[in-house]
Amino acid sequence: MVITHQELAVELGTAREVVNRLLKELERQGKVSLGRGKIECIDTALN
């Protein structure tokens, strides 16, 4: 699935900045890996 941070924010009814902040926090916790144009789930509980 390909979706931008903006599109994800619209789907969730929030701002792009909030999506960015939440994704960064998940990355800090080691649950996801963020790369250019992709989000990889690391924590299998999220899969």
Automatic annotation (TrEMBL):
Domain called HTH crp-type: residue spans: 1-45
Gene3D superfamilies on file: Winged helix-like DNA-binding domain superfamily/Winged helix DNA-binding domain (1.10.10.10)
Stored InterPro entries: HTH_CRP, WH-like_DNA-bd_sf, WH_DNA-bd_sf
Name of this chain's protein: Winged helix-turn-helix domain-containing protein
Species of the source: Oceanisphaera pacifica
Classification lineage: Bacteria, Pseudomonadati, Pseudomonadota, Gammaproteobacteria, Aeromonadales
